[in-house]
Amino acid sequence: MGKVIxxxxxxxxxxxxxxxxxxxxxxxxxxxxxxxxMALYPSLDDDDNEAVFVAAAIRAAEANLATARxxxxxxxxxxAGPAYCYLAFHGLDDVAQFVKVGMTRHPxxxxxxxxxxxxxxxxxxxxxxxxxxxxxxRIEQSLLRHxxxxxxxxxxxTLGSIDAEAAASLAMSMGDLAKSIExxxxxxxxxxxxxxR
Length: 197
Known about the structure:
Layout: H1 7-16, H2 28-38, H3 47-64, H4 68-80, E1 83-92, E2 95-104, H5 107-115, E3 121-130, H6 133-146, E4 151-153, E5 156-162, H7 164-181, E6 188-191
Antiparallel strand pairs: 1-2, 1-3, 2-5, 3-6, 4-5
Helix pairs in contact: 2-3, 6-7
């Protein structure tokens, strides 16, 4: 007489086996790429090894990546907090020739990154705080459209040669424009910044 296999026991043991199909949309592509990489090695010859590799890929995906929901919540948190538009004036010997218009959550960090590979000194930085990234993006795009005639490349604007007083005046007028676009914008204020190089 053969052994009887109960459906309940079978389905319980099936649930204990890790399956790629159980991964969400954020983790699944990672695990699949990892399996493709593992398949290049000759040790993946029989079905037993394949199950071990699948389980390893699933564990790696779960350990290294957030679920799609967790990732979406994190992105939502980033967008919900305050953000800044900035005007970073670059030049030499206290005379600016260019201004970089941008947006960031962390002005000091962003400006330090810009200093890398830039032969000009960052002379003055003015920031405009807004409640969220969406507003900062809207202001940034409007400022770039307003300065379109002076655009050099990307978000870099050619100024000619201006001093600190002219830079502050430009920042004040850009602050008025920012407030007209988003009434919650605080206007541009001078950020105490030293060139990060």
